[in-house]
Design goal:
By secondary structure, the protein is an alpha+beta fold. Strand 8 and strand 9 form a beta hairpin. The structure holds ligand LEWYHDQE, 2-oxoglutaric acid and fe (ii) ion (FE2). The site of 2-oxoglutaric acid has 12 residues, from strand 5, strand 7, strand 11 and strand 12. Keywords: Iron, Metal-binding, Oxidoreductase.
């Protein structure tokens, strides 16, 4: 597999647009995947070496610098309460962080601490289930573009054949409109009635993340000098993605990755990580950890927001590493526009000259699920692909 996520000379690394098809060259001649790995950490634990499919190119798995990334802790309480000085301070912090690397912590965010704790801890029960049971949570999503990514996935081994991530995930969609128990219904209909209480935890957690993401959108607008409600209104009817990440301990952590180097294609990510650590950002030419801070949530700009602000704020390359001793859990809430909404920056001084073409989230999500494995240059590849498409 050609390197598709070389972090150093990003622009010098041009994999073919269909980097998914390239990987399928390891599919056998009658079209079926011949080396599907059933990711079963309890069985893999007894092997001295990890399977070759989990080994990443050394450039992607390059070691981490000790120097933690300086991410500001943006206190949202004053901003939400309408305090002018607190707003100016928060906007300045966000402007500096997003102009540099796009990552910041939020504190004073108002998310119930018990809910946040429960959402992180209750996933343990799910990932500890036998594999066959977890697989019941596969696939039945409502939206076709993303349906391959809904439900349970063990190392994405059904989608990819090499550079597999050392993780298990459970993903589901969240949209508020159309009912206030969509997540609960997802859990009970896909996993079983006994998952109802877990479904309620994520139902409430998603609502809290949606509200928080709209507050952050307001702050981003203020920080960019855009009309305060502009992005909030844009995302009011958003359809977002909730993902539970479970990273088991790994016997050869320096050879693999929990999540490979990528920029999030989505608009905004709110990450709740446990206290183990593993998130890293590629900044100033090196991989730097974003150390967990108790009570804080990590926020980062994704490609879709970078397009919405015409490149003023960065969607930055990041990854998650694993370690020998400890399992790690994280919760990622990905804010995405409603599928058919056109992504374009507001007119005015942000808008020209345009760096990216108009697109819809349905098109971009479809590209990441059918055409291209998300990496460091997804938005660029998507832009080129749009330019080549008939219309
Ligand atoms: C739209 C998306 C694609 C990925 C999930 C997400 O909702 C946001 C980030 C993307 C991802 C996590 C980036 C790293 C590679 C990936 C395959 C993964 O390791 O999970 C990505 C997701 C995907 O499912 O395509
Ligand atoms: O688990 C983490 O720390 C990061 C995961 C991530 O970047 C993602 O899911 O997009
Ligand atoms: Fe990410």
């Amino acid at each position: 597999m050609e390197c598709s996520s070389n972090p150093t000379p990003l622009l010098l690394c041009h994999p073919p647009l269909d980097n998914l098809d390239k990987e399928k060259s390891t599919v056998d001649t009658n079209g079926s995947v011949d080396r599907v790995i059933a990711f079963d950490p309890s069985a893999l634990r007894h092997q001295r070496k990890i399977p070759a499919a989990f080994i990443w190119p050394s450039i992607d798995a390059a070691s981490t610098d000790d120097d933690g990334l300086a991410v500001p802790a943006v206190d949202l309480s004053g901003f939400a309460g309408g305090d002018a000085a607190a707003t100016a301070r928060a906007a300045a912090q966000v402007r500096a962080a997003c102009g540099a690397h796009g990552f910041f912590h939020v504190i004073g965010h108002g998310v119930d601490a018990c809910l946040a704790r429960d959402a992180l801890s209750c996933m343990a029960g799910f990932f500890a289930l036998p594999r066959a049971r977890k697989l019941r949570g596969r696939g039945r999503g409502s939206r076709s573009a993303g349906s391959a990514m809904w439900g349970y996935a063990g190392a994405h081994a059904e989608r990819f054949t090499c550079m597999l991530p050392w993780k298990e995930t459970l993903s589901f969609g969240y949209r508020e409109l159309g009912g206030d128990r969509g997540v609960v219904d997802y859990f009970t209909s896909n996993l079983g009635e006994e998952f109802e209480s877990m479904g309620w935890i994520y139902q409430k957690y998603c609502k809290a993340m949606k509200d928080l993401s709209l507050t952050v959108m307001e702050l981003l607008a203020v920080s960019l000098g855009v009309e305060r409600s502009h992005y909030r209104d844009f995302f009011e009817d958003s359809s977002s993605i909730m993902r539970l990440n479970y990273y088991p301990p790994c016997q050869e952590p320096e050879l693999t990755l929990g999540t490979g180097p990528h920029c999030d294609p989505t608009a905004l990510t709110i990450l709740h990580q446990d206290d183990v650590g593993g998130l890293e950002v590629f900044a100033d030419g090196r991989w730097r950890p974003v150390r967990p801070v108790d009570g804080a949530l990590v926020v980062n700009i994704g490609d879709t927001f970078m397009a919405l602000c015409n490149g003023r704020y960065k969607s930055c390359l990041h990854r998650a590493v694993v370690n020998r001793q400890q399992e790690r859990r994280s919760l990622a809430f990905f804010l995405c526009p409603q599928e058919d909404r056109v992504v374009r920056p507001p007119s005015g001084n942000l808008g020209a000259p345009r760096l990216y073409p108009d697109f819809t989230w349905a098109e971009f999500l479809g590209f990441t699920q059918r055409q291209y494995r998300v990496d460091a240059r997804t938005l660029q590849a998507f832009t080129e692909w749009l330019g080549q498409s008939p219309s």
